[in-house]
Q: What sequence folds into this?
């Protein structure tokens, strides 16, 4: 099937506001949410699955419990649980619980010493889930040049840790994961970084590297959860509804944007952590691994497409229909206003002195440094940096990222919470994350407390970048 034919089935199928018989695209909060959260034992079975993105487009991949995304796991903060992982595939696998403060031996990263689940074997992992918020789980295996491994597969799902905090009044709740499928190698991949206005570029080199870049990974087929735009049920709302969306960029490849014509996203949490200053925006931006919790006031009746601002991405399937009651028209899309994604609008002015302990990470891309692929160095060296980044337990650090590449990178530190201190040339506080997108040739500083002893993995959350060197180990002295 050619891509243009798929668009007729998926993207253009959005002209039909209802497609009976399709599975819902969203995980609605079960009415027995409290009962679900009382569970203390969970099982994930890794095995081949099929994903019906559209009636004539079925993807074969690897998933959890026969589906992709995997089941929504609900846990209670502070209540110990057991996670049983059964691996029905022929290769070793890992499951990383992203955003949790848990020991390194159950974090699901082999770099940190977590044991892999052997082929046709199983393992049980016991930990106490914390902190409360929207987290997620996914494979953490290396893929290298195998686009049927790692996060290129369907091994991902939402993990919610329920705490005492109430996110406010809302009428509906949906968990929506943005995905790309059937990745391929290319030397002409589309770059979405320029959707946000260019900010300060303090790390831009005086002399640009003119060497031929290596090939990257791209995709033309997208979905929200397991359905391409138009191939699943719409989200049905009534005027006046307050809808709480939990968004996740589960892509292995690219930062993504999302808009809903005529509506604003009232952002209340980033990476599952409540923001210091909730704010309304027209367009969301999520790097791979990031989550955004936002409430949308349904006050603009019609039938709308919530999707990617880029026509090729949205028509390739990255969208979902929002249908108001008693509206039976063709779903509409209008381009959002020009806007800037800015973490600092959700923060507050700094009130504490900067930590005296400082760490710096300088990132460089080596064009075709790994044969036909690009490679990456951190502070001029390849992975693992195991004697370079030594942490003293209980100490507060300021970690500064120096991005000397032409990409915006989603940077993730395992098992720790990061408070953005400076980005886009602006100082801020109160924005707590586990994954931060550092802009092209940009610089960002984050503060964190070394309170999770054990090896800690840092990496870019774009699979190919991590595989080819964009990672480091932080160790406790």
A:
């Amino acid at each position: 099937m050619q891509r243009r034919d798929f668009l007729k089935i998926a993207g253009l199928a959005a002209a039909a506001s209802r497609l009976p018989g399709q599975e819902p695209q969203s995980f609605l909060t079960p009415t027995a949410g409290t009962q679900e959260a009382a569970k203390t034992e969970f099982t994930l079975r890794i095995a081949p699955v099929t994903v019906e993105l559209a009636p004539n487009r079925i993807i074969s991949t690897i998933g959890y419990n026969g589906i992709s995304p995997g089941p929504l796991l609900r846990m209670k903060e502070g209540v110990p649980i057991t996670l049983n992982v059964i691996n029905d595939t022929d290769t070793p696998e890992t499951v990383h619980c992203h955003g949790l403060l848990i020991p390194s031996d159950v974090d699901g990263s082999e770099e940190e010493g977590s044991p892999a689940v052997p082929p046709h074997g199983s393992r049980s992992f016991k930990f106490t889930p914390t902190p409360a918020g929207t987290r997620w789980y996914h494979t953490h295996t290396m893929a290298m040049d195998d686009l049927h491994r790692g996060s290129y597969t369907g091994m991902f799902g939402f993990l919610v840790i329920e705490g005492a905090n109430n996110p406010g009044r809302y009428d509906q709740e949906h968990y929506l994961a943005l995905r790309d499928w059937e990745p391929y190698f290319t030397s002409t991949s589309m770059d979405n970084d320029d959707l946000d206005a260019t900010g300060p570029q303090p790390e831009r080199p005086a002399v640009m590297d003119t060497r031929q870049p290596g090939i990257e990974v791209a995709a033309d087929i997208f979905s929200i959860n397991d359905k391409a735009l138009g191939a699943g049920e719409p989200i049905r709302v009534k005027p006046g509804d307050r809808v709480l969306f939990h968004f996740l960029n589960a892509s292995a490849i690219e930062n993504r944007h999302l808009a809903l014509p005529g509506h604003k996203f009232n952002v209340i949490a980033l990476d599952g952590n409540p923001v210091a200053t909730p704010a309304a925006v027209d367009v969301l931006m999520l790097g791979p691994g990031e989550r955004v919790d936002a409430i949308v006031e349904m006050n603009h009746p019609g039938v709308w497409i919530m999707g990617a601002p880029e026509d090729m991405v949205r028509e390739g399937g990255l969208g979902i229909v929002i249908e108001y009651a008693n509206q039976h028209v063709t779903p509409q899309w209008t381009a959002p206003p020009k806007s800037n994604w800015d973490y600092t609008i959700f923060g507050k002015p700094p009130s504490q002195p900067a930590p005296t302990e400082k760490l710096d990470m300088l990132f460089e891309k080596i064009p075709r440094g790994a044969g036909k692929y690009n490679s990456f160095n951190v502070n001029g060296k390849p992975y693992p940096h195991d004697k370079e980044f030594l942490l003293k337990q209980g100490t507060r650090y300021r970690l500064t990222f120096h991005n000397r590449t032409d990409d915006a990178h989603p940077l993730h530190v395992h098992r720790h919470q990061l408070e953005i201190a400076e980005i886009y040339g602006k100082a801020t506080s109160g924005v707590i994350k586990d994954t931060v997108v550092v802009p092209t040739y940009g610089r960002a500083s984050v503060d964190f407390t070394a309170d999770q002893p054990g090896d800690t993995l840092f990496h870019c959350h774009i699979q190919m970048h991590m595989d080819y060197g964009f990672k480091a180990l932080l160790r406790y002295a």
Notes: The first strand starts at residue 41 and ends at 54.
